[in-house]
Amino acid sequence: KALEQHISAELTPTSIGILISLYTGLRIGEICALCWSDIDLNARTIYVRHTVSRIKSTDGNSKTELILDEPKTASSKRVVPIPSPLFYALVEYRKDATSIYVVSSTDSFVSPRTYDARYHRILSDCHLEDLNYHGLRHTFATRCIEAGVDVKSLSEILGHANVSITLNTYVHSSLEMKKSQLEKLTLLSV
Fold first, then answer.
1. What is the pLDDT of residues 97-131, one digit of tens each?
2. CA of 6: how far to CAs of 14, 19, 109, 158, in Å?
3. How far is CA 93 from CA 9, 20, 46, 88, 133, in A?
4. Contact present, 134 and 115 (Cβ < 8 Å)
5. Rounded-to-integer distance, Cα 147 and Cα 135, Å
């Protein structure tokens, strides 16, 4: 909540990407590759069509290079609904956006390493624990489960090939959740 309040106070290319990850679970490479043409504000959807990947260089001058690539699996290509708080932030941010890329202010995509460094600077500014960017994806998934989102829908939103990946990676039952679930037994005794 502290992170969300901080980044919502002033929408920047970095903060809007963090907000997108908090509300959709997109990966950092997907955030860096996200273009405005991938966002349909009328339908309130995000089309995940690309990711920024680091590959072995073909020019011989450097060890690696960044490319705009397709997502790693067929299920990673997906349509993700935009929840209302994110929708309103995107509408506001879009008014002043100058790049075709959502998290860039230039005509080029941002490197995931650069974007990650900017994210960590924001965490530091908020005096928050240093959490890797992928932790936002975990936070999204946990919040969805706590809110009662069904696991099949969550799995598709996250771009997983099957529900077991979602269950084994992101769904961790808390003691409070277990208590709440077992309280459902009381309905049977009535």
1. 999 999 999 999 999 999 999 999 999 999 999 89
2. 12, 10, 24, 25
3. 12, 12, 15, 9, 21
4. no
5. 18
